[in-house]
Design goal:
Shape of chain B: globular
Structural class of chain A: mainly alpha
Helix content of chain A: over 70%
Number of strands of chain A: 0
Radius of gyration of chain B: 22 Å
Helix content of chain B: over 70%
Distance between the termini of chain A: 40 Å
Largest sheet of chain B: none
Strand content of chain B: under 5%
Largest sheet of chain A: none
Oligomer: heterodimer
Strand content of chain A: under 5%
Low-confidence stretches of chain A: 161-167
Mean pLDDT of chain A: 90
Shape of chain A: elongated
Radius of gyration of chain A: 20 Å
Number of strands of chain B: 0
Order of helices and strands of chain A: HHHH
């Protein structure tokens, strides 16, 4: 598989994860609105809404981060760009790419033990009854996609984005 | 090596990494991980690194972040801000500098549905700058108004930075959102005062000629009703204790989509774009919160705040002197750190100190956010200024710098007022939550 094919595949993964996260966000919003509506109008709230929002948050967070990694949208302080040459900036960007993959790998490794413990203890969501290990599995799958996207950043040119911050 | 020395070295390593372009979330995570490993050993640190991402990623309280981001994104996509600006320009016409004041009023009102200062600055540049230029306003003055107005967005609820602040400092989010409102309004009025003074001193910067009749002014009040309705239902709902922040954010996001659709300002593509942007922006924010949690654990273990507190007491520094030094520190940090990073790095260190000096942490949070606002607009690296230039590339950055400088006085006047009258920030939380 050549570079372009790999990038195209990773782009499809990113879009798939982005859409999954988008669906989770919409479900989160709709469940909460429905819960409030039913609570105040019919005095009959959705009992498991809290658990559903938490479960959707897991899908949202661990799938939503892939876009930030593949497109290098994470917040950086680019003050050094004015002091050093383009080549040095490129080296620093590549170094950040490596660190991103390393830290995500660290997270996955560290998350395995509590995930297995959750499976072993058979913990469940209080109202939804959903086994919590399923959420752990969703988190690990999502973050695995994120690590692939982060690794994909190595194949991307080291362009500098100045238009992406979030205050 | 003492734990406090290790803490100081950790903070130093963090700044070096940030200077070397390491993403903020990675710098926080690495310092947090390595620091905790040195202090507590590898096994407990791996346990922490395994649970923190999941705890952040499944936190009901943090679901408010993407939902408020969505509300703001939809408001930007639906061009509601255009109606706001038109209403403000009619109501506030008839005096020199009226259009500048209208821009600031529209920015503050837009801040009532959007929690992002940069989104506000970008939106208002598109809506207001062409009108200001058409009216003969000086480019620098016009962009200065937009930059300053955009910065009020992070004080006026819903504010994304206050949501993150509440999570990291373990403060009540409803109280923080209540605390930001009055300072946000006072700051808007101070900015308006600055705009009027500039227009008076330099009449050629603001050659206003517009004037509307009373009937036209009353008629224009109908336009922003949707903004008011969204604000009253969402933020009013939190203040009144009717909704939790997550519920209010959901209703706000849903309501802004609903109003956009019935007002025919929003198509399916606009909604999808807003949702996807919200995912991307929130993804960036929430990984930072993960890193910040690890970093906070480390700082707590190092007892660095206690060391700084003891040093301040040994030097016989008063609370006011310490606060002044902290504020000066924020001015320096604002020159090269972006807002969220500035909050997440400094609050775990500074908050315990100022609490020991008897200051209210809610009041301090508002001071920090005001300093973040200053960082957003002060040259040479104020992000709002770059956003405006990206939207209007024909305006020189030098002109934007010149235009924003007079407005920088306003946040510092607000800080002085907050020292003299802490109630500016604390009155509303006390009124609602006792």
């Amino acid at each position: 598989m050549n570079r372009d094919q790999t990038l195209a595949l990773l782009e499809r993964l990113r879009v798939a994860q982005l859409r999954l996260a988008a669906v989770a966000l919409v479900v989160m919003m709709c469940v909460t609105v429905a819960d409030v509506f039913l609570r105040y109008v019919f005095n009959s709230p959705i009992r498991s809404s809290y658990d559903m929002v938490e479960a959707m948050m897991v899908l949202f967070v661990f799938n939503g981060m892939s876009t930030a990694f593949l497109q290098r949208r994470n917040i950086v302080i680019d003050l050094i760009d004015s002091f050093v040459g383009r080549r040095s900036v490129r080296v620093l960007i590549r170094l950040s790419d490596i660190l991103t993959v390393a830290v995500l790998a660290l997270f996955i490794y560290a998350m395995l033990t509590p995930a297995l413990q959750s499976y072993g203890y058979g913990e469940r969501k209080l109202e939804l009854g959903l086994p919590i290990y399923i959420e752990w599995a969703a988190a690990l799958i999502g973050i695995s996609g994120a690590i692939l996207c982060a690794a994909g950043a190595f194949l991307m040119p080291t362009t500098v984005r100045h238009d992406e911050t979030v205050e | 090596m003492s734990s406090s020395t290790l803490g100081a070295l950790g903070v130093l390593a963090l700044f070096i990494m940030l200077f070397l372009r390491v993403p903020v979330w990675i710098a926080l995570t690495l310092v947090g991980f390595i620091g905790n490993a040195i202090l507590s050993g590898l096994q407990p640190t791996f346990a922490l690194a395994g649970t923190v991402p999941f705890d952040v990623g499944s936190a009901y309280t943090l679901s408010v972040v993407p939902l408020f981001v969505l509300m703001g994104e939809v408001a930007s996509e639906s061009r509601l801000s255009g109606e706001l600006f038109q209403a403000a320009r009619v109501i506030l016409s008839g005096f020199r500098g009226g259009l500048a004041v209208a821009t600031l009023a529209a920015s503050a009102l837009f801040g009532a549905v959007s929690g992002s200062s940069l989104a506000n600055a970008a939106t208002m540049t598109r809506m207001a700058l062409p009108e200001l230029r058409k009216a003969g306003y000086d480019d620098g003055f016009a962009t200065g108004c937009i930059a300053a107005g955009g910065s009020t967005d992070i004080l006026i609820p819903p504010s994304i930075i206050l949501v993150i602040y509440a999570a990291i400092a373990e403060l009540s989010l409803p109280k923080l959102l209540a605390a930001g409102l009055v300072p946000g309004l006072v700051l808007t009025m101070l900015y308006m005062g600055v705009a009027l003074i500039v227009a008076y001193v330099r009449p050629k910067y603001a050659p206003d000629t517009e004037n509307y009749t009373l009937r036209e002014r009353i008629a224009s009040l109908r336009e922003p009703w949707q903004f008011m309705a969204l604000f009253v239902v969402t933020i009013g709902g939190i203040y009144a204790g009717v909704f939790s922040p997550t519920e209010a954010a959901s209703i706000g996001a849903f309501g802004s989509i609903f109003l956009g659709i019935i007002g025919r300002r929003l198509g399916v593509k606009d909604i999808l774009r807003a949702i996807e942007n919200s995912v991307a922006v929130s993804g960036v924010l929430l990984v930072i919160v993960m890193g910040a949690n690890l970093f906070s654990f480390f700082i707590v273990q190092t007892h660095l705040p206690e060391l700084l507190l003891e040093t301040a007491r040994a030097l016989n520094l008063s609370g006011l002197a310490v606060m002044t030094m902290i504020i000066l520190g924020y001015i320096v940090l604002g020159c090269f750190l972006e807002g969220i990073g500035m909050v997440l790095i400094t609050v775990p260190v500074f908050q315990p100190i100022i609490v020991k000096f008897g200051y209210d942490p809610i009041w301090f949070a508002i001071i920090v956010v005001i300093m973040v606002e200053v960082g957003l607009i002060h040259p040479p690296v104020g992000m709002n200024l770059f956003v405006i230039q990206a939207q209007a590339p024909d305006v020189k950055i030098g002109a934007i710098y010149r235009g924003v400088v007079p407005f920088l006085i306003a946040p510092f006047i607000l800080i002085v007022l907050m020292f003299a009258f802490p109630g500016i920030a604390l009155w509303l939380p006390k009124l609602f939550y006792g």
